[in-house]
Amino acid sequence: MLKRIPTGLRQANGDRHHEPFRQHRPCRPPARLGGVGRAGERFELGYPNTGPPFLGIIAVIALAYCKSMPDAVTAFRLACILTRPLGASSGDLPSQPLEHGGLGFGTVASSLGFPVAIIATVVYATARQTQRLGLD
Fold first, then answer.
1. Transmembrane region positions (predicted)?
2. d(C-alpha 27, C-alpha 110), whole Å
3. In this predicted model, what pLDDT tens digit does every residue of 99-112 receive, in sequence order?
4. Which residues lie across from 10 on neighbouring strands?
5. Distance of CA 117 to the CA centre of its chain
6. Torsion from C-alpha of 67, 70, 74, 78, nearest 10 degrees
7. For the segment 49-90, what is each residue's pLDDT rounded down to a tens digit?
8. 34-55 average pLDDT score
9. Residue-range domain boundaries for the chain
């Protein structure tokens, strides 16, 4: 159910322009879930202990989807919402200092480390698949 929401934009001639419908992004979590990504800090769980529960919940959603429990859109949206706290906890783990429960690499090293790890994984998977198919 879409509502008519004025955006407050003005056209060049000064008339008020009202957007007829607001487009919602499918992966944008509700605002009240925004602080869930910092659950390790809030509940003093520590960064290593914050990610696995969210990963487990995403796995339960995936298993339920395989058993045809939720429809594809519901499963996608639930999993998409839970990737934010999973990403926050996995991103904070290497960047935070040791005394706060992190790995102590710092923000620059961890920010460079994630793309390097992703690229290395893609290169390895591509090479392995090429080797398996005999295309080398």
1. 103-127
2. 24
3. 878 889 998 998 89
4. 16
5. 17
6. -60
7. 888 888 999 999 999 999 888 888 999 999 999 888 888 888
8. 71
9. 110-135
